[in-house]
């Protein structure tokens, strides 16, 4: 998973590819350390999306009227969790786009 995430980040967001784990040493530069955290963030995102996509994981799938429940209401933890995930993931992807835009060189 680490290799495929590194390849996608390299192709889409111009991140340098991560070195193989066996070739890493204590003198890894900060660019690779930053890429490591980005890969970890993307893997966390994928695991959250897989959890959310499992059928029957949330009661709101069976009772659509629950969408109208305010997020402060007791038992609406799924809604608060969804909003937190949305904010975190949006910030991560917007940061990736902003870094790519600043790295682009216009002629």
What attributes does this structure have?
3 helices; mainly alpha
What does this structure look like?
With 107 residues, the protein is an all-alpha fold. Helices cover 59% and strands 0% of the residues. It has helices spanning 2-13, 30-53, 77-103. Helix 1 packs across helix 2 (30-53). The protein is elongated, with a radius of gyration of 18 Å. It starts with a helix and ends with a helix.
SSE order and pairing:
Blueprint: H1 2-13, H2 30-53, H3 77-103
| Average predicted confidence as pLDDT | 79
Indicate the percent of residues in helices: 55-70%
Contiguous uncertain segments of 5+ residues: 26-32
DSSP summary, beta strand count: 0
Calculate Rg over CA atoms.
18 Å
Distance between the first and last residues' Cα: 36 Å
Q: Main β-sheet, in a few words?
A: none
Oligomer: single chain
Strand content: under 5%
- Global shape: elongated
Order of helices and strands: HHH
* Total DSSP helices: 3
Structural class computed from helices and strand pairing: mainly alpha
Short description:
The protein is mainly alpha-helical. The protein has helices at 2-13, 30-53, 77-103.
